[in-house]
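User: Study the chain.
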Amino acid sequence: MTFDEMQLIMQSVVISQREMQATLRETQNLTQSIARGIQAMQDKALSDELKRDEEKAEHQARMEKLERISEGLVNMLDSIDSDRPTILRKLNTIENKTDAIIERLNRD
């Protein structure tokens, strides 16, 4: 093997090493880019999950408030129903007094 042939082989090896280093750098850059993308997706997923949990808690609070309002309405309606005999009794008293006044006026 001649000196020139050995020099060509050495140049070829050096070029191959440079190409491998360039490929390694590209692979490292690509790997880092993919890692950043994965991290961004994980951050987004965590953010979305926290948002869903917050919305779920808000929904639960609204449902509890609606239940309290509904119970209040039921209690109010029940109260009105229990007051009805009192109101009817008062109306009957007024009607009886009115009838008595009309009878008295008719007699006079």
